[in-house]
Amino acid sequence: MAQPQVTERPEVGAAPRVVGFLCDWAVRSEGLLNPDGTMRDLPNVTLILVPCSGFIKPAWLELALRSGAAGVFVCGCPMGDCLNREGNWIVEDRIDQLRKRLQRQKIDPERIGFLAYGYHEQLAFVEAVRAFVDKVRRLGPGEGKRG
Amino acid sequence: MYQRLIARLQSWTLRLDTWIQRVYPQDFDPLYYTGGLCNLFLTILVVSGILIFLYYEPSLEGAYASVQFLTDHVPYGVIFRGIHRYAADAYMVAILLHLFRNWFTDRYRKARDAPWISGMFLLVFSGLAGFTGYLLVWDERSQLLASMTVQGLRSVPGMGEWLVRLFLGGPGVSDTTLPRFLFLHVGPAVTLYVLLWWHYVRIRHPKVWPPALWVLFSVGLVFFLAAALPATSGRPAAPGARPEGFPVDWFYLWPYALARWIAPGWALALVGALIVYGMWIPYTMPDDPSRVLRSPGQAVVIDENCTGCELCYYDCPYNAIYMVPSPYPGKSRAAANRKLLAVVVDSRCVECGICIGACPFEALELPRVLERDIQERIRQGAGAPAPVS
């Protein structure tokens, strides 16, 4: 019997602070969160539930990065399944624009993530967030407040 | 009990999506395009229907013969007939998928009762057009269906005879009957387009068409069925014939299959009851006010910050925001010289908050999910010292 492989993750310093937005209609949030709104599996990730991913202002993502988060992501419903028909396409578009804008201000666009997972895809969602956190960790600490 | 059932059905519907997405990419899931598929099959029906119409003769003697002529002697006539026949079935399948999916995934809530009600009307008229299509062939099945319908209509209290006259175009089957049936087939089909306008009118960028490959697949499927299982007529209708059974098309003729167990009048009443219940569905499950994120309140324009930039107007998926000439200048610097002001139309707003995401000027809010609180939580999440994992 082969021993179960333990995947090594690069441990670069402390876990980075990450803020995530989750559409209330996308991944089921029961059992996903601690009472303080952080994720149970990844306590360095704060999840904010919103009525629709289209509700999210790009300015909020920028605010998260400016106030010290190393990364910020949005999770909407599977593309094409938005309850409000267009919310996740719209927010994906807005994130693209925000990435370009932030790149001009020397903020790595990789720090903004966009995910799309359905009601039953909790495990895949947590894995995707984990991968995003690892990516952000490799990018180093966040920008913090400017000036 | 009912709520638990609906919640369970919602869960199953979404589980089905998860399975489909193991095979297809997310935005290629056919269940995301059931409305587009309905429209596709309706288009196929209209095109093939016009071609059949060119050969159809609506008269007692000529109807059956003209359909036979189309089938046997017109080049590819049997294919056109088959396409019309199988596209009609596929259309009903797509409609029912569209209905149940939108029902189970809560897409009828709030201001979306208007698409729901118009959708029920579309279903009724589609069913009517589908049923009368079986009458036009005027074979034994048509005759049996017509006589059962007459029995059913006659048992409607008070207006039975009048309905029968309306249906047959006279007191009994006569030369005016088949033109009447033809109208009852084409009339509802034309009405569908009026109803579709109602179905789409509040929706910005409706998905009226499935992805190209699904279009090709659906058209191919219909062509394949038309060639593999050619549509045929039964024996011609004759005044004295008493046909016993008929091959049932379960999508359009199920109320007639019930006639084996209940009287046609009751089958008609059952259909009516189902339609009434369908119309009532949007009002069966009121929103749970304790779930703030499901009922965050209708978007409110913060008058003094609105600059009239129209971004919310372009992003609102339900056309719920109107830009009106600004009656007075706004208070913030950006809003001081505005020409337009956004106004949220209450009867259309579904409380999704997409306009809030569009607004760069803090001029829109959902009353129960305030921007201030979200910003506070972002700062909390981003600012406090990170725990070591």
Summarize the structure.
The complex is a heterodimer of chains A (147) and B (389). Chain A is of the alpha/beta class. Chain A has helices spanning 58-66, 87-104, 122-139; strands at 18-23, 45-50, 71-76, 112-116.
Task: Tell me about this structure.
The complex is a heterodimer of chains A (147) and B (389). By secondary structure, chain A is an alpha/beta fold. Chain A has a four-stranded parallel beta sheet, with helices on both faces. The longest helix of chain A is centred in the middle third of the chain and has 18 residues. Chain A is globular, with a radius of gyration of 15 Å. The termini of chain A are far apart. The relative contact order of chain A is 0.23. Chain B has 389 residues and is mainly alpha-helical. The radius of gyration of chain B is 27 Å and the shape is elongated. The C terminus of chain B is likely disordered. At the A-B interface, strand 2, helix 1 and helix 2 of A face helix 1, helix 13 and helix 14 of B.
Rounded to the nearest angstrom, the radius of gyration of chain B is 27 Å
Q: What is the typical, i.e. mean, pLDDT of chain A?
A: 87
Mean pLDDT across all residues of chain B, rounded? 91
The main sheet of chain A orders its strands as 2-1-3-4
Q: β content of chain A, as a range? A: 15-25%
Please outline the major beta sheet of chain B. 2 strands, antiparallel
Subunit organisation of the chains = heterodimer
Number of strands of chain B: 4
Runs of chain A in which pLDDT lies below 50 for 5 or more consecutive residues are 7-12
The helix content of chain A, as a percent range, equals 25-40%
End-to-end Cα distance of chain B: 43 Å
Give me the strand/helix succession of chain A: EEHEHEH
Which parts of chain B are unreliable, with pLDDT below 50 for 5 consecutive residues or more?
384-389
Q: Categorize the overall geometry of chain B.
A: elongated
Summarize the helix and strand pattern of chain B as letters.
Answer: HHHHHHHHHHHEHEEHEH
Number of helices of chain B: 14
Biggest sheet statistics of chain A: 4 strands, parallel
**3D shape of chain A:** globular
**Rg result of chain A:** 15 Å
- Share of helical residues of chain B: 55-70%
Give the spatial strand order of the biggest sheet of chain B.
1-4
